[in-house]
Amino acid sequence: MKPISRQQWLVGVLSVSLVLGAASPGLASAASADAQTASKLKVQSRLSSNLNIPRSGELTPSAAPLLKSSASPQNFVPESDSSSLTTVIVQLKNDPIKVFEKQSAGASLADHTSKVRIEHNTFKSAAQALRGLTFKREYSKVFNGYSVELPANQVDGLLKLPGVKAVFPNLTYHATPVESTGGEVGPSEDNSIPYIGAPKWWNEGYKGKGVKVAVIDTGVDYNHPSLKGAYKGGYDFVDNDKDPFETKPDPTKPPVDGKPYDTEHGTHVSGTIVGRGNPNDPQGTQGWARGVAPEADLYVYRVLGPYGNGSTENVVAGIEEAVADGNDVINLSLGSDFNNQYTADSVAVDNAVKAGVEVAVSAGNEGPGDETLGSPGGSQLAISVGASTPPGETPIFKSAELGDLYAYLTTYSPELKDNKDGWGVAYAGLGKPADFAGVDVKGKIALISRGEISFHDKAVNAKAAGAAGVIIFNNVPGEIQATLGSEGDYVPTYTITKEDGLNLKAKAEASDYKIHIGTVHEQDLLADFSSRGPALPDYSIKPDITAPGVAITSSIPSWTGDYSNAYESLQGTSMAAPHVAGAAALLIERFKSERKEKHLDPEQIKALLTNNAVEIHDRSGTPYSVQLQGAGRIDLSNALTAEAIASVKEKLPIELQGSTNSEYQTGSLSFGQQAGGSTVTKEITLKNIADTKQTYDVQVKWSADGKNVPSLVSSTQQITLQPGQKQTTFTVKLTIPKGTPESKFEGQVLLVKQGDGHTLRLPASVYVGDAYKLGEINNIAFSNDIFSPNKDYLADTTDVSFNVNYPIKDFDLVVNSDTEGDQGILYSGLSHAPVHNPDTYTLPDWDAKVTDHGQEKSLKDGLYWLTPVIHDTNSRLDQERAPFVVDREAPKAEIDQPGLVINEADGTKGTISGQVLGDTLLNVLPNVKYSDVIGVAVLTTDPSGTYTQADGVVDDKGHFSVNVPVYPDIDNSYEVYVYDAASNGLLTPLATLKKNQEQAKIFADPATQEVKTNTEFQVGIKFATTAKANSASFSLVYPKNLTLNAVKLNSAVVPDPQNAVVTQNIVDAPNGDKQLNYSVSLKSGTFTGSDQLASVSFQSATAGQYALTLATASVKAGAVQVPVTGLNTVQVVVKSGGTDPGTPEPGVFNLDSDDYSLLVGEQFETVALFTDQNGKVTNVSSDAVYTSKNPKVVTVDKYGVLTGVSKGVTQITATYKGHTVTAGILVVVPYVKPSSSSVSEQ
């Protein structure tokens, strides 16, 4: 499953922070051009393009009404106009062979196999007509169909082919290794398997012998001593061979989104299920990792490759092969980001169970939010597994006033020993170096708030300040299970909740406060990261069961052949599911050993495990919701002594039914979403598995009591099984009165055996009211929340996915902006299919183009929302809208001077620093931190000529610094990249600096220090450079009471004005000042030495002392940025006594037109004319000062030359000797005549 380090987002408008190591759903084949370009990049981005931008409100839960069957084939991959190749999964109509074989007793398997073969041949022949289609994988055992690759704009053509039932997207799956709990581990820490009762089964002779278990995962190190004897075979669907070994390390492959290139996940999972080690003999030939079923046979199917990523087509292929190979149990510790029960992988999982194979799937690591289950964790028939804690010692900080503060020890941290006098506590803010100034933390515990910098940096800074330990408290509700990143020399570092942290902070700030540390023994707490149900859209209870998933010790690969330390403690629901898979293997061995009529099918084994689970409670003693724990924590001791199985009869949703057996048995009472005034009855079957007389008292525990609340009543209070009686049934009736408040209600039905009190448990839940009725469409998601459609092949597109919860016909997905309203339609449902049935739909490679009143247009850069509009019901689902950002431009930034600063104490180290000036993401997400969306990297070459990347740190004010190596023996250069989370800025460096490079100085020098009012004075912008420069620029900030008359380029520096490109504009500066931005770039030649670049003339009608600041300056020699020094502030005193300010020079000043129009990209030269009092007309174009009101529409240079930039209307202003005139500007897009083919398509 995905990492558990995903942060929960604060509720607040556009407040975002980086999601570490999380990946969003998407097509596995999408953005292939992006991947190819990325592989050629010299710079590796350390940012994620997935920002979990807060939505406009909480998503409203719901469930689907009864679905109507549709004979029409369904396409869950919406039509695209892109010609890029994409992979999809095609489902054909006939039942898969293994499902038919198991479910259709007496029917001819040969006939059905022949029917499937003919269906495949017919489809394959017809599919050849689709342009560019390539067949990839063929399925027939538990999923009937193919995976195919074809242009995205050809997908709809598949629906017209014979035999097609549905087309599914090829989703991305993850099994990213979760954080290690740190340090070396030993066999004494392997306590989760004994805790669930496995040794009692071993003592009875059941260790999984003869049972085949399939692990569908990242592969396996089959040479591991604890696995070598168990491993029997498998297949690698990543490399398409019979060697499913884990992905090995590759030093040329850097981590991506915090995930390493190599994998270990499948080996760890395998050890938990079938490890054959002996914890009592850790040095023995089989190591010490011992699984739940240590004599079961292991088959491994590698479907997840480098970085732990894979796709639907390989996951389905792995399930197919596992069933075909005769496996009894499948473990799937993987998942996608979709909470949807109708995806292709869920179909395959359900069919595997129908074919007689038990399947355990991990629920996901996206807790603690509701509805965070990940597909295929919502599969109807599989056992979905959440994570709980095994027995362990929990650290607590104790004080008389605050009581016990429960804590987590961070990964890689040493433990803190108690101090008999207690530990002093001092609050140190966010734990930045500056936060320790004036705070005495020496010998104390530094109390630090989470946020802005890493846990590692907080711990390091605290140690540097002399702290004896660190407590980091959360900045959002809930606990933190944090990591320091890697092994190191740290002081003990713990985390606590926000509430406890704020209480401790108040005490620490009020007095010299002290606390003690200790531990408390705990077990059976729900892991904070464990994903919650219900499964959507049917509101089924999920997970079905929980199992230990915290600090689970098992086997991992060895890349050296030394297996003495090839063990690790990991956490996640990925670690919980294999406990259940191993338990299923023990049950299968036991019941296989009995006569055939006593063999249990997968549904009965699932119910046997859930019936006998132990209910778990939080620290207050309150039971967790059934949507968090299912039936409870697995307990094999109870299952061993069970004499009966209680199960509930359910019917598969119509969309998941094949031609056979739509009914199934399960271990929970899921009533879904119901309206007030409803009555629902469910049948419970009690199966006798001991052939004994048994009498059970039927008890109903229900959370609702009083008037106008639902009631759950059993048809009997007692039920009996007689010897020889196979089973009996009874019913429970849910009654929901009219007027029942909208809410979730839950409880459980208990069957308590008379005599020994053995209890069988059936959890129950219902969601009442329209508040729990899903919108027709929800879960809109983007593979990249931000993307950059600028055709640089980096994050140019995003994949858009959405859930349809019940059949709809006429709907649109509309893009809108909070400031500019609706922008256009991304997807129109009715124009693509007459009906959209429930499933997850994915639109690949969207490039930010929408249709607006029949015309296609590209969205401008900015923040947008995608909103479903349902025309069937005339409703706009604003509560389901999802945000995204379009950002095509690289961040604006500048380098601090003098560029590279070499450490005086150590000449092998240097620093490059600078300032981020702006970026679209910073503009549209006002509360975002710079470090979330802006990255800085410097590339340099070492003596061997190999590029090395140094990553910088961006502070909360946008200032960045990068520590770089300096090689004394080579004159290497440094490429500085400032990039954003949309991958802008990764291709072209902001600047290239050199060690011992040329220097430049630019400074302001007024011609006079004192001047009269209304008298012109000059400020020279002078330079001195050793470089052969070809361009220079500067920004001069001046008070608004000064009037800028003109800027003159020094003809001694630029003798030929036609050889230079000059730009200038005046913008508002802070505090009401003005800022002149001026640049000159030579078309040929260079300038060097010292001289005046330009002179700027001012005058003022108001006396006073005025400061003019040269704020920024830049000099380039070719593409190399020359470090600049000399920036300064000068003072000019203006005294009274000049000409009356109300009388500019006599005459008339005007432009040659009041209005100008030009095309985008076109230039037009205006003419400025001055008519003196004698009637003489002079062309003063080169002496006037011009400004553009909106340079994004039109720019104007120092000579009055206009350049159209983009479509729009604006103004320019020209000033000359106290006269000012304004002219209107219209910029239009050139007309392009449509092609003949476009004209014909009416």
From TrEMBL:
<dbReference type="InterPro" id="IPR003137">
    <property type="entry name" value="PA_domain"/>
</dbReference>
<dbReference type="Pfam" id="PF02368">
    <property type="entry name" value="Big_2"/>
</dbReference>
<dbReference type="InterPro" id="IPR022398">
    <property type="entry name" value="Peptidase_S8_His-AS"/>
</dbReference>
<dbReference type="GO" id="GO:0004252">
    <property type="term" value="F:serine-type endopeptidase activity"/>
</dbReference>
<feature type="active site" description="Charge relay system">
    <location>
        <position position="217"/>
    </location>
</feature>
<dbReference type="InterPro" id="IPR003343">
    <property type="entry name" value="Big_2"/>
</dbReference>
<keyword id="KW-0645">Protease</keyword>
<dbReference type="Pfam" id="PF05922">
    <property type="entry name" value="Inhibitor_I9"/>
</dbReference>
<feature type="region of interest" description="Disordered">
    <location>
        <begin position="240"/>
        <end position="263"/>
    </location>
</feature>
<feature type="active site" description="Charge relay system">
    <location>
        <position position="574"/>
    </location>
</feature>
<dbReference type="InterPro" id="IPR036852">
    <property type="entry name" value="Peptidase_S8/S53_dom_sf"/>
</dbReference>
<dbReference type="InterPro" id="IPR000209">
    <property type="entry name" value="Peptidase_S8/S53_dom"/>
</dbReference>
<keyword id="KW-0732">Signal</keyword>
<dbReference type="InterPro" id="IPR023827">
    <property type="entry name" value="Peptidase_S8_Asp-AS"/>
</dbReference>
<feature type="active site" description="Charge relay system">
    <location>
        <position position="265"/>
    </location>
</feature>
<dbReference type="InterPro" id="IPR023828">
    <property type="entry name" value="Peptidase_S8_Ser-AS"/>
</dbReference>
<feature type="compositionally biased region" description="Basic and acidic residues">
    <location>
        <begin position="240"/>
        <end position="251"/>
    </location>
</feature>
<dbReference type="InterPro" id="IPR015500">
    <property type="entry name" value="Peptidase_S8_subtilisin-rel"/>
</dbReference>
<keyword id="KW-0134">Cell wall</keyword>
<dbReference type="InterPro" id="IPR050131">
    <property type="entry name" value="Peptidase_S8_subtilisin-like"/>
</dbReference>
<dbReference type="GO" id="GO:0006508">
    <property type="term" value="P:proteolysis"/>
</dbReference>
<dbReference type="InterPro" id="IPR008964">
    <property type="entry name" value="Invasin/intimin_cell_adhesion"/>
</dbReference>
<keyword id="KW-0720">Serine protease</keyword>
<keyword id="KW-0378">Hydrolase</keyword>
<feature type="domain" description="BIG2">
    <location>
        <begin position="1145"/>
        <end position="1226"/>
    </location>
</feature>
<comment type="similarity">
    <text>Belongs to the peptidase S8 family.</text>
</comment>
<dbReference type="Pfam" id="PF02225">
    <property type="entry name" value="PA"/>
</dbReference>
<dbReference type="Pfam" id="PF00082">
    <property type="entry name" value="Peptidase_S8"/>
</dbReference>
<protein>
    <recommendedName>
        <fullName>BIG2 domain-containing protein</fullName>
    </recommendedName>
</protein>
<dbReference type="InterPro" id="IPR046450">
    <property type="entry name" value="PA_dom_sf"/>
</dbReference>
<keyword id="KW-0964">Secreted</keyword>
<feature type="signal peptide">
    <location>
        <begin position="1"/>
        <end position="30"/>
    </location>
</feature>
<dbReference type="InterPro" id="IPR034213">
    <property type="entry name" value="S8_Vpr-like"/>
</dbReference>
<dbReference type="InterPro" id="IPR010259">
    <property type="entry name" value="S8pro/Inhibitor_I9"/>
</dbReference>
